[in-house]
TrEMBL record:
Its EC number is 5.6.2.4. It is found in: Nucleus. It comes from the Eukaryota. The keyword ATP-binding applies. The keyword Nucleus applies. InterPro entries: DEAD/DEAH_box_helicase_dom, DNA_helicase_ATP-dep_RecQ, Helicase_ATP-bd, Helicase_C-like, P-loop_NTPase, RecQ_Zn-bd. Pfam families: DEAD (PF00270), Helicase_C (PF00271), RecQ_Zn_bind (PF16124). GO terms for molecular function: 3'-5' DNA helicase activity; ATP binding; ATP hydrolysis activity; four-way junction helicase activity; nucleic acid binding. Gene3D superfamilies: P-loop containing nucleotide triphosphate hydrolases. This is ATP-dependent DNA helicase. Residues 259-405 form the Helicase C-terminal domain. It catalyses: Couples ATP hydrolysis with the unwinding of duplex DNA by translocating in the 3'-5' direction; ATP + H2O = ADP + phosphate + H(+).
Length: 476
């Protein structure tokens, strides 16, 4: 038990809190153990598949425990969504970041200054945690024994071995140095053993005492497939149109009509996300799909805020014309739409972890969903160049390149299960069962044929690369 804070009594009925405040019937597997470990005052590391329900693991203790929980989160959209959901459940939650209006910021600072904040969950960016004003306020709160816990969401960002390293995450060791008695919870969906180790050591968490919950990354309801293509014979658009029209036609069939009518759904009401790697492609692809009568809308960082909000709201509301979001990687994290039926990667994404995070937006309701990635060796060259340009100062280049190469190997692999390869990448020792939920299990022979026939030869691509064919590809 922490000497500085009175922890929740062991007989607190967390099941009751789950039902009353979070309106959920029961815990998912492992949530109860994780929450109990946190309430007991331990440092906790949680690694679990996308859509597992990791946020609840720090939100529920924050409601039960005395004091305030600080949640460090890398993404504003992620913060906003969680704060809105907490407030809707009647929980006093706020966020403090570069977008917080002046009046709100002052209100939150005044709340902290009292030493007895009314706020139960405060979401902050790692940058903010480095600021002297915020740090001084937290010291006041800690002195009053009201600093309950530090939760670090997307904790893999701490490690420079991770694909998404952020310098300011590396400075979070300040929490343990300054408040050695305040427990820390780390949460991530995507870390390999090396990243986990690095996160613990950077935060100065004791590897022996920290309660580790490392669950399988497998999402057995995701059907994983790689589709091969090449510049010379780029059939992505017609291939995708053929697939999506097939899906719509099946939904229009006589047998399905009554079912759709009862659910109040249109045939095209098959929400999906297509990830592209540049804003230009995001615009041109969504326009091309609209020309073909498919309800697709672009979503990227350069769009006006109100356009983005409208697009998101209409997509979430399953409105006609907003069935598919064509997005850059800026989209997705923190978006918790449960009926996303497919995620398509138009080109190879920049990292293995990014690929799996993005694919993980599909099927959050547990129903079967489709994830496919169009892979070409030319794109691999392009993306390698983009990473090199991103890391001009040399930072993190090797780790990011390793992650991309691992993803390329995954794409070119034709002799094992996709789910097994993903588990292996994340260091999961058990081999998952796959019920025909990947292209290899569905038809290994066909996969091999598609691989042999679909790609440009390595020699040809490297000759083109030397000629500079793939240079100048960027997402600025
Ligand atoms: N015990 C539960 N019962 C029902 N729903 C739950 C439970 N726990 C969490 N959820 C719901 O599951 C969804 C996913 O939770 P959450 O956003 O925390 O996922 P996550 O593990 O952080 O995933 P990701 O890494 O993909 O963001 C949310 O809608 C959440 O409300």
């Amino acid at each position: 038990m922490s000497p500085s804070l009175q922890r929740a009594h062991s007989c607190t009925d967390i099941g009751f809190t789950l039902r009353k405040q979070f309106h959920k019937e029961e815990f998912r597997p492992h949530q109860r153990e994780i929450i109990e470990a946190a309430l007991g005052g331990s440092d906790v590391f949680v690694q679990a598949a996308t859509s597992f329900g990791k946020s609840l693991c720090f939100q529920l203790p924050a409601v039960v425990d005395h004091g305030i929980t600080i949640v460090v989160s890398p993404l504003l959209s992620l913060m906003m969504n969680q704060v809105e959901a907490m407030r809707a459940a009647g929980i006093n939650a706020s966020s403090l970041n570069s977008n917080t209006p002046y009046a709100d910021r002052e209100r939150i600072h005044r709340d902290l200054e009292t030493g007895h904040p009314k706020t139960r969950l405060l979401y902050v960016t790692p940058e903010l945690c480095s600021g002297p004003r915020f740090r001084e306020r937290l010291k006041v709160v800690h002195k009053q024994r009201e600093l309950a816990r530090i939760a670090i969401d997307e904790a893999h960002c701490i490690s420079e071995w991770g694909h998404d390293f952020r310098k300011d995450f590396g400075r979070l060791s300040w929490f343990r140095d300054t408040f050695p008695d305040v427990p820390i919870m780390c949460v991530t969906a995507t870390a390999n053993p090396q990243v986990r180790q690095h996160v613990l050591s950077t935060l100065r968490l004791d590897g022996e005492k920290t309660k580790m919950f490392v669950m399988s990354p497998q999402r057995s309801n995701l059907h994983l497939e790689v589709r091969y293509t090449r510049d010379e014979d780029d059939g992505r658009l017609s291939d995708f149109l053929c697939w999506i029209r097939g899906v719509y036609d099946r939904r229009r069939s006589h047998e399905r009509q009554a079912e759709l009518r009862q659910a109040g759904e249109r045939a095209e009401n098959v929400p999906g996300i297509i990830y592209t790697i540049t804003r230009d492609e995001c615009e041109s692809l969504s326009a091309a799909l609209r020309e073909e009568g498919v309800g697709a809308r672009p979503f990227h960082a350069k769009l006006a805020k109100d356009v983005k909000e409208e697009t998101l709201a209409r997509w979430i509301g399953n409105e006609a014309g907003y069935d598919i979001i064509v997005a850059t990687t800026a989209f997705g994290m923190g978006i918790d739409k449960d009926n996303v039926r497919f995620v398509v990667h138009w080109r190879i994404p920049k990292s293995f972890e990014g690929y799996y995070q993005e694919a993980g937006r599909a099927g959050r309701d547990g129903n079967a969903s489709y994830c496919f990635l169009y892979y070409s060796r030319e794109d691999l060259e392009r993306v390698t160049r983009m990473i090199r340009a991103d890391c001009k100062d040399g930072s993190n280049f090797e780790a990011r390149l390793r992650s991309l190469q691992a993803l390329a190997l995954y794409c070119e692999n034709t002799d094992s299960c996709r789910h097994a390869e993903i588990c292996k990448y994340f260091g999961e020792p058990t081999v998952p069962t796959c019920d025909f939920a990947c292209d290899w299990h569905k038809d290994a022979r066909d996969l091999e044929l598609r691989f042999l026939q679909g790609l440009a030869s390595e020699d040809w691509v490297s000759t083109q690369a030397l000629r500079g064919t793939y240079d100048g590809y960027d997402d600025s």
